[in-house]
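Quick one:
INPUT:
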């Protein structure tokens, strides 16, 4: 039987898109405490199936597919620009395809305005009316209100009309920044993107026997299987080591490892790869919120995904991407890298930030290991010995040196210099992912 938390999530999923949700309403309808209802609604918000808007409340929204992740809902726009809804609340769940700035004559504006877009405009009543007439939502800048008939038109067409105190340029920059952030999120690979689903994976139950393990082994060629109870919840893991020397009629629950490491679909590729290296795990069960088996992810799945990521162009760049892109290999006989301290790499004092300094050391070490064909690293420990301020526009040199390297372990010493002066040193101990 599903828990109260799961029942609330299922109830929310069954609601129509655009439906308004409240803690008190959920608590009353499902006969649960306000605290349970609140926690479930927050979980639904984390899953992207509801959105909470100040002065409006929580509404059911359409779950975004990853290919449309960079698109924003009007509800998200309100939170981005700290706006308030003047009309058209029923359309807050809708997704905008593009936004335009209505700083033009009405006939010119008509050519660019289309359904499901957002028109950013000041205190121009006719422009607001035209936009709504063409099926576009309206964002009024400068903190202005609008006429009552415009609000009624927005309600009739279920198109939000929003007011914000920010000016047009600031609003456009804020929305662009939000879309850019969504692009970065879209490029992050999650377990849910690459795992083998429950329908295609192999598993055993606690009451199965070692004979069933051999049967699955023959079918799949795998040697590791998740173990589930009668509700498909993961309770253990069984491998070839666990069954050696055991009779075929012994139950799996007698030999399995209990409470295995598990991940969820929203776990990032970086996290699961670190878990596999750190714990020495080849296969990890993928579960949902109720701990029910959704599938498995293997070390091979992770390695293939890591290789694929390196072949893809970056659309949304993080600070790490900027740092890595600007790090160039010199033609020196030893492996040496150079870069220049750009404004994005500095702190509020205009000197190289500690975070970027750490990234430079890690990236240079990673490239050195790849040069020696040792594989990719997962940092286990990083010690920075000292660092002197490095001002903006300085040219710096990074010299990584491999001190020790084994099959799954490496130790590196890194020097960072400006000219011939050492400004920082680092010692990295890392685990290796052999490609």
């Amino acid at each position: 039987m599903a828990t109260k938390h799961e029942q609330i999530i299922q109830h929310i999923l069954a609601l129509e898109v655009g439906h308004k949700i409240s803690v008190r309403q959920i608590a009353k309808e499902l006969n649960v405490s306000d605290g349970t209802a609140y926690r479930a609604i927050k979980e639904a918000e984390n899953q992207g199936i509801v959105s909470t808007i100040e002065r409006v409340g929580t509404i059911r929204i359409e779950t975004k597919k990853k290919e449309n992740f960079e698109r924003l809902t009007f509800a998200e726009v309100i939170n981005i620009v700290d706006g308030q809804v003047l009309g058209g609340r029923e359309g807050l769940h809708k997704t905008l395809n593009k936004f335009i700035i209505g700083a033009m004559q009405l006939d010119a504006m008509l050519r660019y305005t289309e359904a499901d877009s957002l028109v950013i405009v000041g205190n121009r009543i006719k422009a607001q009316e035209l936009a709504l007439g063409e099926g576009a939502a309206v964002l009024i800048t400068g903190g202005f209100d609008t006429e009552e008939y415009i609000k009624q038109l927005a309600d009739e067409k279920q198109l939000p009309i929003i007011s914000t105190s920010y000016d047009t340029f600031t609003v456009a920059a804020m929305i662009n920044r939000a879309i850019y952030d969504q692009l970065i999120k879209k490029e992050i690979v999650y377990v849910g993107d690459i795992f083998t689903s429950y329908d295609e994976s192999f598993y055993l139950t606690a009451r199965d026997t070692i004979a069933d393990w051999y049967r699955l082994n023959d079918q799949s060629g795998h040697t590791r299987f998740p173990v589930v109870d009668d509700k498909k919840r993961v309770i253990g893991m069984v491998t070839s080591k666990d069954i050696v020397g055991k009779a075929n009629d012994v139950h799996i629950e007698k030999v399995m490892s209990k409470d295995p490491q598990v991940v969820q679909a929203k776990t990032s590729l970086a996290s699961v790869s670190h878990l596999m290296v750190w714990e020495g795990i080849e296969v990890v069960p993928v579960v949902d919120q109720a701990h029910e088996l959704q599938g498995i992810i293997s070390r091979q799945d992770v390695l293939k995904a890591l290789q694929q990521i390196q072949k893809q162009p970056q659309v949304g760049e993080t600070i790490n991407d900027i740092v890595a892109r600007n790090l160039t290999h010199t033609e020196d006989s030893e492996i040496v890298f150079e870069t220049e301290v750009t404004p994005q790499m500095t702190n509020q004092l205009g000197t190289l930030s500690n975070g970027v300094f750490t990234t430079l050391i890690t990236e240079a070490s990673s490239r050195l290991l790849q040069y020696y064909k040792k594989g990719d690293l997962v940092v286990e420990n990083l010690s920075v010995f000292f660092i002197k301020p490095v001002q903006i526009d300085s040219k710096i040199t990074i010299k990584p040196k491999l001190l020790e390297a084994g099959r799954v372990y490496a130790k590196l010493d890194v020097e960072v210099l400006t000219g011939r002066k050492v400004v920082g040193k680092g010692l990295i101990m890392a685990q290796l992912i052999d490609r």
